Amino acid sequence: MPLNLPMLLTLMRVLAIPFVVLAFYWPTPWAGPIAASLFLLAAITDWFDGWLARRWNQTSAFGAFLDPVADKLIVATSLVILLSQDASIMLSVLVAVIIGREITVSALREWMAEIGARASVAVSWVGKVKTSFQMTAIVLMLWGMPLGPIPVYELGYGLLFVAAGLTLWSMAMYLRAAWPVLSEHSDQKA
Q1: Which CATH number goes with the domain that contains 112?
Q2: Is residue 106 part of a domain?
Q3: What is the pTM of this model?
Q4: Which domain holds residue 170?
Q5: Which of 19, 35, 67, 125 has its CA 20 to 30 A from that of 175?
Q6: Could you name the domain of life of the organism this protein comes from (predicted)?
């Protein structure tokens, strides 16, 4: 596997995870903004690495595997650390919905690929919009501190509700797209 710039950016996103966690818990008033900035840089590389790989024709099977894994790891980790600071029932439900969807859709894609029907559950526009809301919400919630009169955390929390709604919608779309194949193979057991 050649280590090109798109692959390096993806790997850097994985390596950023412990730094986001350490920054978040660092005992300084700027811990949230530092963690949010690191998360934001990682989120930007998510868009940039895929764009570069396609533009420079440097796509690879490993890159196609690692890119969504890196996204899910940094999102899930960030949601868990946010939950550690605000263990409310509502945030717990939002985090469970988002992480649960990621597990469900990943398993669905893996199974569909195994039976040669992966194209049925390709990434949809709703999934991309969901990711944008989710990343923005997490950045704002990690930042946590108000910017003048702007309640940054609360704004991010509100966007996380939107992201969770889009999460459920996109999961329903994936399941609906896969349903003909799922129901056709219902007699097979895992």
Answers
A1: 1.20.120.1760
A2: yes
A3: 0.88
A4: 5-184
A5: 67
A6: Bacteria
